[in-house]
Amino acid sequence: MIYYSKVSYTLLIVVFIVFFGPLIPNYINDGFNSTMFLMTLALIILFGLIVHMFFNTTYKIEKEKLHIKCGFFKYRPVNIKEMKKVSTSSNVISSPAASFDRIEITYGKFEELIISPKHKTKFVEDLQKINPKIINNL
Q1: What is the pLDDT of residues 54-70, one digit of tens each?
Q2: What's the fold here for domain 1-138?
Q3: Tens digit of pLDDT for each residue in 123-132?
């Protein structure tokens, strides 16, 4: 079963402003020149890669593993049998989550993972089918 990450458009707008906001004074003062063109082009490409990551973050439950893919990056699979607890999270730490509506999965000895599946309840139910010992604190 594949679950897509929920996408926070507010977060995407903030990233856009951070990328392109500083260019405005330069365009006002210096006008449009080849240096500004190259800088803008580079930022557009980089922003495109970030958008790709936002809309192509997936959480795949396969056998007893949770596979996480964020754009072009793949994370180490997590053994679902080692998961202990799932709870809501407001932690803004960098993670494979394209939204602020996140869940935290505790597994292993002291490990945790923060993700943001669109359908959190169904996602946790599918995890609990494999490991019924997972505590659901959503």
Answers
A1: 999 999 999 999 999 99
A2: PH-domain like (2.30.29)
A3: 999 999 999 9
